[in-house]
Structures are given as structure tokens and as C-alpha cells.
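Summary: Need help interpreting a holo structure output

Steps to reproduce:
1. Submit the protein chain below together with the SMILES for flavin-adenine dinucleotide.
2. Request a joint structure prediction with the ligand placed.
3. Inspect the C-alpha cell block that comes back.

Expected: a single structure record containing both the chain and the bound molecule.
Actual: see attached output.

Input attached:
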Amino acid sequence: MTDTALAGFSLPPEVEAAAEYPSDLHQGFAEAGLLRAIVPDDCGGLGLGNLGRAVLIEEVAYVSAAVSMIPQVNELGCTPIAIAGTSGQRQARAAPVARGELYASYGLTEPDAGSDVGALRTRVERDGDGWLLSGRKAWICNVRRPGFGIVFARTSPDGKRGLSAFIVPTDAPGFEVLGAEPATDVFVGHGYSRNNPVERFMRDAKVTQLYEGANSIQRLVIARHLAKTARAKAERGRSRLNAAE
Ligand SMILES: Cc1cc2nc3c(=O)[nH]c(=O)nc-3n(C[C@H](O)[C@H](O)[C@H](O)COP(=O)(O)OP(=O)(O)OC[C@H]3O[C@@H](n4cnc5c(N)ncnc54)[C@H](O)[C@@H]3O)c2cc1C
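--- attached output ---
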């Protein structure tokens, strides 16, 4: 793809100025078949894999980092379903996202739990045949639009291991959106681009170091993984040596 091919995905200044979600661009993604890149193959997915998805998002971000949030945020909401959803959940939730009919969101962060997900406090209890969730989330993109959120809640006091993910329709009774959501900030924000686009470029660049896990935390996660892999490799080497002796 080239910047010319995706030029239609730039964010018109009047949409920024009006602080509106660019629904027409969202539909443009769906009609071009690009939302199929973010859902599992059995839900109409394109089978691109992580690298292909990253390239797609990078190409869109080249034209507009804010607009690249459209596939990114919806992908985040579909990923738990791709990993652990039943076939019914995949067809009822992820497939309509690919067609642009539903919006997916990812509700992990809370006012007092960001990087430290072990501090998460949203509770859940059995309520007849269903579940009753109670808590407060923060910074959740897409929740104002029709669809569903993956809401992480505490099923046991066991830190980050005591969490489960629930699919919650945005029209579920008691689901309430308070205050502004970050997508509004990403697309507009006070003084975001009104005077000088450089300010927006700076915010676009910085935000990628914060959301979906702060960079410093991602470095820790990667370092732990590399250390674990290196330990396992050294262990295998020692076992082979012992066997050879
Ligand atoms: C535009 C935007 C959109 C977002 N969208 C969503 C969304 O859709 N869904 C959602 O669930 N969340 C969303 N978030 C929240 C985002 O994931 C969190 O902001 C992020 O995980 C960091 O959490 P925090 O803000 O509580 O910061 P903290 O966790 O308080 O971190 C503050 C600073 O301390 C550092 N730090 C914290 N702990 C450690 C440690 N152990 N070691 C070293 N450094 C550490 C961090 O790297 C960071 O620099 C969004 C955020 C933004 C800005």
C-alpha cells in the first residue's frame, strides 16, 4: 500500500474541529474490507497475522495516526474473543465488527489501575443465570458507540491472576459513560491542532508510548520473556551435555 492509496483515510480538519467521531471513515474501512484484517479468520478475517496487521495500521498512521486508532481499538476489543471466545461469541460479536456493524472496545484500565492490572477493582458476582459487574473504568475508547466492550473484572482476590474478561454490550442495563473518552482526545482535544499541526504530531507520537501498555512496561515484559527463553535454552544445553557425559 502507499500513502496515496490510503489518502482517503486522513481526518478532515472540520471533523477535528467539531470533536466528532469520523463514522464515515469507519464505514470506509468496513467497505474497503480493511476491518476484516482485525478479526479471526472464521469471522471473515483476512488471515494477515500480526505482521500484516501492523503493516496495515502503520500505513494508515502514515496518513493519520488518529484514524489508525479505528482498526487498532476495534482489534483490541476483538482479540480476547479471538483467543478465548466460543464460536457463537465470535460470530455474534467479532464478525459484525468486520462488517462495520458493531464497535468493539477493551475495558481494562481503571482510575487506580493502569500498568498494575493486579490493582484492578471492578467486581463481578453471579446474578441468576448471568453476572453482575460493578466498578469504574477509565480511558476506554469506543464505548459511546453501539457494540460491546471486553470488561476485565475481579473473580478472585489473587492479583492479576484473579481476573476474568466479560463481553458487555454497550446497551446493557447500568452501562454508563461518564465524561470524555480518549478517542475524542485523540481525534481532537483542546488546542490539539487548531494553531499548529506540530502539536498534534507530538501527541500522536507520544500516545503510542502510553496506551496498550506503557513502553517501559512493555520493555519489562519483553525482557522477562527474553530472560525466560535464555534460561530455558541454557537448561537444554546443560541437559544435552549431561546426557553426552
Ligand atoms: C489515548 C489513550 C487511550 C487509551 N485507551 C484505552 C482503552 O481503550 N482501554 C483501556 O483499558 N485503557 C486505555 N488507555 C489506558 C492506558 O492503557 C494506560 O494509560 C496505560 O496502561 C498506563 O496506565 P496509567 O495511565 O495508569 O499509568 P501508570 O500505570 O500509573 O504509569 C505511569 C508511569 O509509570 C511507569 N510505571 C508504572 N509501573 C511501572 C513499573 N512497574 N516499572 C517501571 N515503570 C512503571 C509507566 O511506564 C508510566 O510511564 C488509554 C490511554 C490513553 C492515553
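--- end attachment ---

Reviewer comment: Residues 215-244 form the longest helix (30 residues). Strands lie at 103-107, 123-127, 130-134, 147-154, 163-169.
Status: needs-info
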